[in-house]
Design brief:
60% helix
Length: 504
């Protein structure tokens, strides 16, 4: 018998989440608050001593045996990268590249697509857990993918295949993962422009295939986000592409598609105001208020599958700003709502600025004062709602996610990645992506001059928790910017976080 020392009576969820369990009858408070099934409490007396007889016998037998059992060869770094990339982008909760499964399985001999998959997968692995070897292999694969894709574009039948369009989309994803500045020139925008040109050459037949249509939706979404983040004009070709896609979608389209249409309106309106195309203050204010009403209406009319539940709590945890939090039925629903909230914050900040004179003082008159107060209230409410989305994801995946990983055999990452090391004991990269995607809306909420200082400080604390618990380096960077009061353009923050490679 081996004495194992004192053991915790805490339930399994609390032990996994490293929380203090109050051992309450029926279910502990922590599990009740997080809406998790409480597994009950351990009999520590039975566990304190462990029978090691069989283990000792096995060790003695192994020492006497001269038979050497060969070890399985380690999984290659490229295979590891593909496993993790597929888990997050093809089979994961949000599935932004689910169409890759069909195209890649049917065209596995297309070298340009294979090299593009390798390049983006290795870049993604390196971004999650930096490795000198992964970085070198990613660059090598990227250069090879560029060369092979150029060759494919010069071959008429290959240029019009889905595999070539997908290869270009993956090369663009590589740029967003590795380049954290929103720029007009260079590959940051060039791949998307090239993909849009390919779509125009392919004709209308491409819209009939559902998986190809999802690829085109991804292209249109990525182009829109790229334009908004960089301040680049929203091209008419992009708007026309979305109109053609919309003709093949159910009526009405899902809330995320409708939200993207409103984001296009916001981007164009913001640019018109910035370039003095819409110079009249009253006209600009009316246009902004009307657009904000459209966002508000969208939020009020979402179907049940896109609605969240508000949970009131008796005692706030460190991850609660107010005494409530939101539970979303799926991660993409949370993303939709936080995009709406963040955009409304930026929109209402513009409305507030329209109410000020050239000296930064509130214009005289009850009309401007009322508009200013409504915009201020909207910003505060949106900021608090963003904070309320955090408890669901901040301290790790739900139990159902962990159980699914155990049952399905999730992709694993070797502890040895050449010159880099995967931190043992840290959550798998797949675990904290939902948490990572909260950084941008949290920044938008905290950077506003309208929100209370207590909210900004609370956000900084949550970001530092992400950096410590999930090893998210960018969370610490954003926390430092907020704490120092450095007003950084939200587009630059979005690009620094990897744009739609991670955030969307």
């Amino acid at each position: 018998m081996v004495y194992c020392g004192p053991l915790s009576k805490a339930c399994l969820p609390c032990r996994r989440r490293k929380l203090r369990c109050d051992l309450r009858r029926d279910a502990c408070t922590q599990c009740t608050r997080a809406q998790l099934p409480c597994s009950g409490y351990r009999n520590t007396t039975a566990l304190r001593f462990r029978d090691e007889t069989n283990a000792v016998q096995r060790r003695v037998t192994a020492q006497k045996s001269h038979t050497t059992i060969p070890r399985s060869p380690p999984q290659s770094i490229c295979s590891q990268a593909r496993d993790i990339f597929y888990h997050n982008y093809v089979f994961g909760p949000t599935k932004p590249f689910d169409f890759l499964q069909r195209v890649y399985s049917q065209t596995s001999k297309d070298v340009h697509l294979s090299r593009s998959v390798d390049a983006v997968a290795l870049a993604y692995l390196n971004s999650q857990r930096p490795s000198g070897r992964a970085e070198v292999e990613a660059r090598r694969s990227y250069v090879s993918a560029i060369q092979c894709t150029r060759d494919a574009l010069q071959t008429p039948h290959l240029a019009q295949q889905d595999s070539t369009l997908l290869a270009v989309l993956l090369l663009d994803l590589y740029e967003k993962i590795t380049t954290r500045e929103p720029v007009f020139q260079g590959a940051w925008a060039a791949h998307l422009d090239g993909a849009l040109t390919l779509v125009k050459l392919r004709g209308d037949e491409q819209f009939s295939e559902p998986s190809t249509r999802r690829m085109l939706i991804r292209l249109s979404t990525n182009m829109l986000i790229s334009c908004v983040a960089s301040g680049r004009p929203v091209l008419n070709d992009l708007v026309n592409l979305r109109h053609t896609i919309a003709a093949h979608l159910p009526t009405p389209p899902d809330p995320k598609w409708q939200e993207s249409d409103l984001v296009i309106e916001f981007a164009r309106l913001r640019q018109a105001i910035s370039n003095d195309v819409l110079a009249d203050r009253n006209e600009a204010t009316v246009a902004l208020i009307e657009l904000d009403s459209k966002f508000l209406k969208l939020g009020m009319q979402v179907p049940p599958a896109w609605q969240y539940t508000t949970i009131q709590v008796d005692t706030k945890s460190e991850h609660h700003y107010e005494s409530y939090h939101h539970i979303h039925p799926a991660e993409h629903v949370c993303q939709m709502w936080n995009t709406l909230r963040a955009t409304r914050i930026l929109l209402n900040e513009l409305i507030r600025s329209r109410c000020m004179d050239w000296q930064g003082r509130l214009n005289a008159g009850s009309r401007f004062r009322a508009i200013h107060e409504r915009a201020t209230g909207a910003i505060k409410q949106m900021a608090m709602d963003i904070c309320a989305s955090l408890p669901q994801y901040i301290d790790g995946p739900p139990m159902s996610f962990l159980q699914a990983f155990d049952q399905t055999g999730s992709p694993s990452v070797s502890s040895d990645l050449g010159n880099g090391t995967f931190p043992i004991g840290r959550p798998h990269p797949s675990y904290y992506l939902p948490c990572y995607r909260l950084i941008y809306p949290l920044y938008v909420a905290a950077q506003s001059s309208v929100v209370p200082l207590s909210l900004s400080k609370w956000v900084v604390g949550q970001l530092r928790f992400m950096a410590d618990y999930h090893a998210i380096k960018n969370a610490m960077t954003v926390a430092d910017l907020l704490e120092l009061g450095q007003k950084t353009d939200v587009g630059h923050i979005y690009a620094m976080l990897g744009s739609y490679a991670f955030v969307c």
